[in-house]
Structure formats: C-alpha cells, structure tokens
Amino acid sequence: MDASRLPERSLESDAIAGGAGEAVPHDSAHLHVSGGAFYTDDLPEPRELLHLAVGMSQRAHARITSLDLSAVRAADGVIDVITAADIPGVNNCGPVIADDPILAPGFVQYVGQAVFAVAAETVTAARKAAKLARIEYEELDAILDPLTAIDADSFVLPTETIRRGDSRKAIDAAAHRLSGRLHLGGQDQFYLEGQIAMALPREDGDLFICSSTQHPGEVQHLVANAIGRLNKDVVVECRRMGGAFGGKESQPALIACIAALMAHKTGRPCKLRLDRDVDMIMTGKRHDFVIDYEVGFDDTGRLEGIEFMFASRCGMSADLSGAINDRTMFHCDNAYYLGDTTIVSHRCKTHTVSNTAFRGFGGPQGMFGIEYVMDDIARYLGRDPLDIRQRNFYGIGERNITHYSQTIDDNILEEIVGQVATTSDYAGRTADIRQFNASSPVFKRGIALTPVKFGISFTATHLNQAGALLHIYTDGTVHINHGGTEMGQGLFTKVAQVVAEELQIDLERIKITASDTSKVPNASATAASSGSDLNGKAAQAAARKIKKRLVRFAVERFGVEPDEVSFRNNSVRVGKETLDFVEFIQLAWFARTSLSATGFYRTPKIHYDRSTFSGRPFFYYAYGAAVSEVIIDTLTGEHRLLRVDILHDCGKSLNPAIDMGQIEGGFVQGAGWLTTEELWWNDRGELKTHAPSTYKIPTSSDLPVDFRVAMFEPGQNQEKTIYRSKAVGEPPLMLSLSVFHAIRDAIASVGGAGCRPPLTAPATPEAVLAAIETLRDEEAAA
Amino acid sequence: MNAATGTVRFILDGEVIAIDNPDPTRTVLQYLREDLRRIGTKEGCAEGDCGACTVALAEIDRSGERLQVRAVNSCIQFLATLDGKELITVESLRSSNGTLHPVQQALVDCHGSQCGFCTPGFVMSMFALYKNNAEPSRRAIDDALAGNLCRCTGYSPIVKAATDMYSLATQLEEESSWLLAPSTPGGTCGSDEQARCHRLASIRHHESLEVATRGRRFIAPRTLVDLVKCRCDYPQATLLAGGTDVGLWVTKELRELETLIYTGAVEDLRQITSSKTHLEIGAAVPLTDAMPAIVAHWPDLEELLLRFASPPIRNAGTLGGNVANGSPIGDSMPALLALDASLVLTKIWDSDLKLSKRSLSLNEFYIDYRETAREPGEVLECIRIPLPAAGAQLRSFKVSKRFDQDISAVCGAYYLELDGNRVAVVRLAYGGMAAIPKRAEASEQALIGREWTIDNVTRAMSALDQDFEPVSDMRASAHYRRTVARNLLKRFYLETTSTDNTRVYGYGRQSVA
User: Fold this and answer.
1) Shortest alpha-carbon distance between residue A487 and chain B (Å)
2) Which of A33, A39, A128 sits opposite B107 (nearest CB)?
3) Among partner residues B151, B158, B401, which is closest to A243 by beta-carbon distance?
C-alpha cells in the first residue's frame, strides 16, 4: 500500500505513537511475517494429547440402520471412539435453535454430517481409523435445492413477509412492468486456517478450550451444555484466527464440542483439526438464492412498486439463517427508495450442509436482487443504468424511509456516487466502450457503477453490547482485553489505539491479549462489522473509568482542581507540573488507587420489533461506490477485470491502513463470489468443489489491471461512534456487484436493443457463454 | 546397484541434519511442525494448492558454483526428497537479533498481512522471487505468487511488498549473508554462498539412497541403470517424480505406499538436450526447467506453461510425471500431442543390465482413463519434441474458471503447416474432452488437404462432435466443453489470419519477461 494514498489523520494524538487515526501496522505483523504468530494448532501441545478425526455421513438423507465401529476401535493407535450415545449433555451445537446435532442421532441430513469421532495418538492414525467404519443406511428422499424445498413445504424457519403499501396495485398501475428469476450462488469462506479446537481437562471436570472462533462465549455455552455442565465450568480462549469471514461465527461450536466430549470421556487433552476437504464438506457457507422479482416503474425508470421472493438454501438446520435472511430483506433496497413493497423470504430446508454467516450476512444477496432490477429497468428503457440508479436513490428529507420504517438521515449517496463517477470518467469511458464494441466482434467491454448502503448493528438489538477489561501495571504498561476476537481484521490493533489515545501513552506500552471468556463474559460474536464500534467503545469506557480515578487521586494528592489534570503524550499534567506517566502511575498505586477497570457499551438509539419488521435496527449506514470495467471473450466466456475505481466511506478512520485493507480485501472477496467461486453439488447431494483444486478463490493475477481505491473525504459519522469512525468489515464486499454488472453490460452488447442478459452468478466463463448464447438465439429468432 | 545409504541428509539453518530411515511418506511439513515444532510453516490444504506451507530449497545449480533457490509446497514434499538440499523456512529468514528480512519487512511496511496465516508461505514465495529475479515485472510477481492464496488482503499490498522489498535490500551491508542479498544477475559468488555450496557438496551422496522402515521403502537411485533395475526388483512400486500427485495419495487418500522409487536424483533423467531435429527433455526435469527450453522454440506456449499450476508445483513437478501420469486434464499433453512428441521408454534388456529403449508416439501412449502403453519394467526416460518446421504454427489455449493455477475445463492445442493456403499438416489435440488427452481425428480429416478458410474451419468445428463426448462435472458441463472446443479452434483460425489480440487475459497486461 502506498502511504500517500492514505488520508492524513490527526485526532488529538499528534504526540503519542500509535493513537487513534494513525496508520500503524497490524499488531501482529512482525509475527505473521516471521512465523512467530501462534494459531490454535501452533500452541505447545500438552502431554498425552489425543488427535481426533470425524466419521462423516455418506448420504444426504438417511436413517442409520447399522453403525459398526469395531474396525475403527481396533485400528492402530486408536484410544477411543464416541457417538451420539456418549454425549452426557445436550446433543446440539446450533446457536439459536437446538436442531443441529453434534453427532448424528440415528439419522443423517447431509453428506458430510458428523456421525462419530475417533481419538488416536496421531492425526494420521485417527484419520485412517475414521475411514474404517461400516455404516449402513436406509435412504430417505433428499431435498437438494431451494425450489424443491418450497414445493415440499420444507423450511427451517417460517416464511417471513415485509409489506409496505399495496405493491400489487402499484405494479399494476405502473406505466411499465418487468419480472424475472435470478440465480445466485453461495460461497465458501475459505479462511486459510481450517476449523480447529483443543480441549484441555482441568480439575473437577472443568474444561479449557482453545478454539479458532469468532464467538468464544457461544463455544463456552454449547460445550458446557454438551458435557452436561454449566458456563462457569468451561473457559474458552482465542488469541487469533487465520481468517474467519463469518465461517467461524457458529461453526466452531461443532469442532469444539467434539473435542470437549472426547476430552470429557478420556480425561486427556484432545485436538480436532479438520483437513481442508473435510472442513469444506462439513461446515456451512454463504446461502445461495433463487430470487423472483416483479417491478412497476414510470417512464423515467422510477420505481412505483416491487415484489421480491427470496428463497435461500439454509441446509439441514436453522443455524443463523433467521437473522441472515432478515438481513437479505433489509438490504434488498440497497440505496433505493422502493415504493410500495412486498418482500417474501423463504428459509428453505435442504439436505445439504447448514449454511451460515459470511461477510455481509445475507445483505449481499438482497442487494444483488435490487441491483439486477435496476439494471433490467435501464436495459428495458434503453437508458444508462447509472441514470436509473441515481433516479431511485433515497432522498434527503423525502423518500427517505425504508420498507422497515427506519428514516435514513445520513445519506451521502449522491456525493459519493457523483464523485467516483467523475474521477473514474464513467461517462467518457462508457462512450468509448460503446464504440469499441461496435467494431469488435469477439471481445466486448462493459462498465458499471454500483453503490453500497449497508446498515450497521446486529439486527437482534440485544447483541449490540460489549465489555472490556483494562489493567495498568506499576511500570505504566497496560493490559487490554475485550469481548471481540481477532481474525485478521485488525480489531486488536484498533482497540489498542483507542486505549493509547485515551490514556495518551504510546501504543507499544499496551499488550493486546487473547479473547477469553473468563475475562470478559457474555460477549457477542465478533460479527456484523461491529467489532471496533462495540469493543472500541467498551475499552474507551474502561480507560475513562481509570482516568477518572487517577484524576481523583491527583486532586487529592496535589490539591488541584479536576480540570487541572490532563493526560498528554506519555505524561500527566497536574497543575503546572508534568509527571511522567510511569511515575504518576506508581504514585497512584502507592496511594492505593485501583488500576483495573471494566468497561461496558451498548449501542444507543436502536430499537426494532421483529414481529412487524419495523423500527430502527441500524445505528447508522456505511456507504460506498465502485466503477468496474471488464472485457469478455464471446468465444469462451472468459473475462478480465480491466479497471476498478472505489470510493468508500469509513467515517473518520481509526486506522486508514487497516481500513484500506478491508476495502480492497472485501472487494476482491466479493468479486470472487460473483465470478470464479462456484459451489457444485452432484445429484446425490455431494459437494464436489471441496478443496482449492476445485474451488477457485481469486489469486493476485485476478486483480484489476488498474485498481484505484480511495476513502471518502472528509470522513465522518454523524452518530457518536468511537471517534466518529464507521464500521468497514462487510460493506466493501458489496462494491463487487459492479463487477457482475460490468460483465452483464459487456454481454448485453451481443444482443439487440433492450435485451436483458440472463446472467447467473457466479459469472463463470460457462455462465457468461450461456447468457451470450441465449441472447444470440433470441436475436436469431427475432 | 551401488551400495545404498539409509540416511537422509540436508541442511537447515547451517546445520547438517541426518535422519536415519525416516518414514518414506513423511512430509516435510509434518517433519517441521510435528518433529521440530517449527510452527511458522502452515498447513492450509495439504494438497499444494494454497501455498501456506511454502518453503524454499537451495541446491547447487548446473554451473556447480552457485546456489539455486526454489519454492516448493512442503505439504506434499516427502522428507526423503530433501536429501542433499538446503531447506529454508520462514524462521530461517529472521536474523538472530530479531531483524526482519527485507521480504518480511516489506510485508510489514505495506500492510501485507491481515490474518497472517498465509503470510509465511507468501514470504517464502517472495523470497524465491527475491533470489531469482532482480527486477520483476507485475506479471512476474503475479506468477511468483500464483501458488499462494490470500483471503484477506486482496493481494494489492502483497504485490506492493514484492516490489518494495528490493529497495530495503539496498540498505544492507555488502558482506551480508547470502539469504539477505537479492538476485544480482551476473554478480559474483560471495563468501557465504561459497560456504553454503561447500556444505551442500559435502553431504552429497554418490550412491543410491535407500530408506526402509517397517517394510516400507523409499529408494532414490542415481543412475538410469539403477533406476530400471530397481523398477524390475520392485514391480509394484510407485514411481515418484515431483510428487505433486502422489503426495495427495498420502495426504488425502491416506494410502500406505509400500515402496517408492524416486526419479528426482537420477542425473540421466535430469538432462535437456537438443539435436538438429529434436528437443529431448529428461523425464525428471522439473517443469520450471523444461518450460524455458520448450518456449524457446515455441514462444506461444509461454502463456500455457505459466498457467500450468504454480511455481512451487512446477519446481517439484516434472514434465515426465505429467505425461506418464496420464490424467485427462494434464496441461502439457495437448500441446505435446499437437507437436507430435514421442516418448523414450526404457527397460532392462538382459542380465548384464543392458538397456533396451523404444520410442513411442505420444499419440499411441494413452489407452484409457489413466491407462497407458507403458509395459511392465519400463520407465519413461525422456520426451522427444520435434523442432519447429519452417512456417509451422502452434497454439495452445486453456480455459478454466480462474486464470492462474486452475485445472482446465478444456485445453486445446493446434498445430498447422500450410502449403500456400492449403492445409498440409494439421494436428488438433484436446484435454478435458475425453478420458484421455486425445487428438481430434475427424476434425483433422475435415481440414487436411483443404483451404485454410473459415468455412472449412467451421466444418472442422462441427466434426469435433464426432471426436468427443465430454462429461459434465464441477469444472464445466458437457455442453460448455463442446462449445468451447469448437470456439477455440475458431480462435486458432483467427490468430493465424489476423494480428488482433484474441486472448482476453493478455489485455492490458505486460508479458512476464
């Protein structure tokens, strides 16, 4: 990253090193690059450690008529085997509803479902033994896709509907109507570090769990339930994950529960590390969707009414599908005022792996729907898609209430889109592209500008809380702990910067420590882009609490007024004197001042009634816009990303380098979702793309040839977030919708006027060529 | 056979490591993480596709005086193949006083790590680039990183670091360690590099390596005679070349391989020779070395060969292994079929250990899915590629979901000699279209002796339906494969008749040079 691309920042911390707003490197960068960062599998292994492997279902839906594990037990190095019958507590690892068995209870509901676990002296011995099971099944009818599920009335949760006005009437009365069915694929998280947990027995039946998890508290809770104990008996720790992206929000519970159950049974430490293929087969992914829409609009392309039907593949259990599909419903407006609206959301139960959180959490799928509609309207009317998008933007002071009754009062769409349209020369390049296409029979170019508006907060209001624990030691160094987890997003760095800023000490004096359920209890998952917002505020509260005590100490000790005490650049000013921070802390300790404090934060203003899908679920919105240009080969359907311009809103960034990494990384990950990353099941419900050899995430050569990324200036957040920053984890992913629509734009040049290319996502070469063939057939028929 | 030794010797951080009879299929990654607890090197996929496990190997190069560094995937590299080499891991690069290597420091400065799990692998691939290329182009950087997946950063800061690392190197003292100095083409060999070469020379075995443990063996012959004799002695043995496929039998299928015969130490198979009529590539020549030799004659193959897996795979994997393995989706075979390459197959002729060799057209080598015409006792000695005839044209096109390091949905290779505008010689070969890599005979017949025109090419495109009945799988549907097989032939026609760019990936990109 070029430092000159980063905006200059100066909050109140010009003097200290590493305060809020400074582009300091990730706190573990020096460890990452030298191999010194410990992930769960790198922790020193305790004596007598057992290694586990999981025996998986080979059927999508079946009763187990015989489970013969004698050969497994007899295999070299095997110490023990467990099945559902060995679970002393509750056989469930589902986070919301208890419908997710840890080990199959006599029947299986997807290929890859855990049936038993084996413990052995080595990883290889355990894995080899697991293959020796003889399982007989009585096969049952399997539902393998969402549409079949709807026909069969097969759902993991009830269908939900949001209505505003009379959409039927509005559509019927509109000057123009369009409808369509869209197919949108899922996505594997493909964190580089696979799922892993290590369970260590402690005295009296207690367990200590090292888990690669975004949600240590939930692992603690589900492990305790599984072994028939209570939360107080289980401690869960996570220093860092090797990537997560939502894939370690609920999924690690399964892994940790199996390790815990085996440790509970054998009394020995147990580690379960999934092989990559097993990980991809056994754990959940982003939901794939079928989306139907019907829309009515006027001559200018402005929406009068719209109806959406979303059908998502939830898999065999509810997992987080309720909140994920809710977020799809909330985000199927993206940046647009929808008019009269009916949104129906089916949460389809299929006999495939239970789908789960993935960066954007259902939001991207909703936005995919409305962006497709915008594109269709533009193509139908023969207008530039950007005109249609801008025409439908939420207004300021009018047309600014969402279909879930939240008033949008921080709208910067026009500015951000206007700016990037200008800096990218959208209009000039669009004209060039039309000219190029007219004279290029094989290659076609396309361009698209799409906006992002993404709601920030957990939609389940109660999750918007966080705690922190801060100690100052007598040498003036600081230990900070909070409920968030580090998955690479730089949360620990940002929170430490907040503490540095508050205490006015250099960042290097602050030790960032592993997430630990015994230090900060009942923490929410690090998810919904909320990590810095919540934990930064909680850490700030803890620091301020201690500062208050320190001021009181100074007032008593030096006989000054409270406003004569200030913290500045590694020192404390008391009246006219300046004390070194370390010296000051020692005096405070000597005077018996408490130097440890907890901090707590709950997001203000939000409220939301799920029974009516109305209220203010989101504290604020994050915005962005991207312009993508592609070239496609009409002989093969291959494409190349030629240029991307991004302008993204981070508020007043806590760390511009880290935020830039989130923008670029999120965009590329989204582009992978919409282009190369294809999940492919066969007709037996077996996922055949379960390794990097068959599932293709982007590599460095997939980057745009010309990639221009900037942060929206001047960044701000009208809400009082931590130093007025904005969440940045998820929103940039959806900037990649511009890539999909640029490809669609290129394909459209093959068809006649008004054609709407039937492009499915991901836009693999095959999908692109299929859309081209359809348009050519239409042309030939016309 | 010469007297064998059962001790694997290699160098790590300046120390000679000697391991007596290691498990024949223990991987380098298992050794590092489990035996040495050097946990910097990570397992991401255990199949050579993500790069988290990347380490570097140094060997004495062909000149005999300089070190050559290459990145490999430690997850599928067997420990015994380290014999005679220097192993360099991410921990090797940081100096004892904690100072980061320029490659590492550049990644810190550029914010090139987020979760950090892929980072050690990137460090090692970048280290190999640093030691091999003094001024890489963007495409060369992309190629160096093609075997390393990062899910967090979106790669921009890593690419930036791969550019910036050289400027950090300029601040180094002159007589610094060989590890710290970037590639200097034509530069002299420093004292540290000399010392390392000497150390490597000192551990070199001149006899076969034969590792045995609990009835399982790893045998690394040094000569062709020893190799074919060994093949006779152990008819059921698995021949191991680069191990980029066999490694997965162990890590993924958990197969217990009883006897492995490693071709990588057989000097006779590591030669590239050129006659007036042919280029001969020894069966154990790594793809990294085979590629430039082929591209020198057929420049158009550069794209195909760069897109062949990734550098760590090409550094381990061999052209001979790709050909002999006989996968229907191996990327080298369509081009070799189009070039009318042949194979030299060698076996023991009599009890005096005389060798018998036969030459077989590659077109006759593949019989059915992973079944070849190789006879018992035969080993593949080399691949013979005819040198270009005047005016001959060759193209090979690969279509896959991702540009770099993917497996073909369809790979087409086309050879054409025209007499005037009449087709004198034509060979059309495809991968991904049948159970074996295969020539399209009906389509060729539709062209031979006819004018090279779009009408005749269109007829040949239709004839492909008689040649192939492709399957649908996770890479592509049968319909797509058929359509693209036809369209690639059309692309070939377009490339032979116009100068327009017809490769979308070449658009706006520099070449790798």
Assistant:
1) 6
2) A33
3) B151
Residue B405 in contact with partner chain A when CB distance is under 8 A = yes
* Residues in A touching B483 (Cβ below 8 Å): 769, 773
Cα B316 from Cα B329, distance rounded (Å): 19
* Residues A175/A256, Cβ–Cβ less than 8 Å: no
A691-728 pLDDT per residue, tens: 999 999 999 999 999 999 999 998 899 999 999 999 99
Q: The dihedral of CA A671, A239, B160, B312: what is its sign?
A: negative
Distance in Å, alpha carbon of A456 to nearest chain B alpha carbon? 21
Segment holding B224, helix H or strand E: helix B224-233
Calpha distance A768→A762 (Å, rounded):
9
Identify the pLDDT of residue B111: 98
Q: Contact, A303 vs A339, CB < 8 A?
A: yes
- Mark out the alpha helices in A532-674 (DSSP H runs): 537-558, 581-590, 656-674
Helix axes A537-558 and A491-503, enclosed angle (nearest 10): 20
pLDDT digits (tens, 9 = 90+) for B142-180: 999 999 999 999 999 999 999 999 999 877 776 678 999
Q: Taking the CA atoms of A530, A531, A532 and A536 in sequence, report the sign of the dihedral they define.
A: positive
- Quote the CA–CA distance of B329 and B324 in Å, as a whole number: 13
Give SS3 for B438.
strand
- Structure confidence at residue B170 (pLDDT): 77
Q: Which residues of A555-582 are buried (b: 16+ CB within 10 A; e: fewer)?
A: beeeebeeebbebebbbbbbeeeebebb
> Rounded to 5 degrees, what angle do the CA atoms B76, A242, A624 make?
125
Catalytic residues of A: 730
Tell me which residue in A128, A640, A660 faces B505 most closely, judged by beta carbons: A640
Nearest CA in chain A to B116: A32
Write out residues 71-100 of B within 8 Å (CB-CB) of A: 89-91, 93-94, 100
Q: Is A565 in a helix, a strand, or coil?
A: strand
The model's confidence at residue B512, banded by pLDDT at 50, 70 and 90, is very low
Structure letter (DSSP) for residue B436? S
Q: Provide the shortest C-alpha distance from residue B426 to chain A (in Å).
A: 22
Q: Residue A40: name the closest of A190, A188, A234, A191 by CA.
A: A191
The Cα-based distances of B367 to A565, B237, B338, B436 in angstroms read: 87, 21, 17, 7
- CA nearest to A767 within chain B: B480
Distance (Å, whole) CA A460 – CA A776: 47
Q: Which residues contact A311 (CB under 8 A, 6 or more apart)?
A: A146, A147, A149, A150, A289, A290, A291, A346, A348
- Chain B residues touching A697 at Cβ < 8 A: 149, 151
Q: How many Å lie between the alpha carbon of A39 and the closest alpha carbon of chain B?
A: 8
Nearest to B96 by CA among B179, B2, B189: B179
Record: contact B113-A696, CB cut-off 8 A: no
Comparing A217-231, A548-562, B298-312, the range with the smallest average pLDDT is B298-312
Task: Specify the 3-state DSSP secondary structure of B398.
Answer: strand
